[in-house]
């Protein structure tokens, strides 16, 4: 409760990015439903700090897997075992 009564002090940080990249950032935070650019950037930075081992390759693999599931391109392990005449032993 004390944190809600006395939120931590915030510091302004300035960065330089291209206008094109800023346009992408602005489109993304709005599409994702954030209230502001700052809120979005804080969230992205927080994720990068808390999960430094999570990278683009991980994200791409997760998205590819999700696409396969949605497009019904997955098979159960039992179906694969049957196809290749494999058993559990």
UniProtKB/TrEMBL annotation:
Swiss-Prot/TrEMBL GO biological process terms: regulation of DNA-templated transcription
Superkingdom, taxonomy of origin: Archaea
Family matches, as CDD domains: RHH_NikR_HicB-like (cd22231)
Residue ranges, annotated region (Disordered): 69-89
Biased composition (Basic and acidic residues): 70-83
Name used for this protein in its record: CopG domain protein
């Amino acid at each position: 409760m004390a944190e809600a009564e006395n939120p931590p002090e915030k510091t302004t940080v300035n960065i330089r990015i291209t206008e094109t990249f800023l346009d992408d950032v602005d489109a993304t935070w709005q599409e994702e439903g954030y209230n502001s650019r700052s809120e979005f950037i804080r969230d992205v930075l927080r994720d990068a700090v808390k999960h430094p081992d999570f990278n683009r390759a991980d994200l791409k693999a997760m998205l590819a897997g999700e696409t396969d599931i949605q497009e019904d391109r997955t098979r159960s392990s039992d179906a694969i075992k049957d196809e290749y005449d494999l058993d559990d032993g």
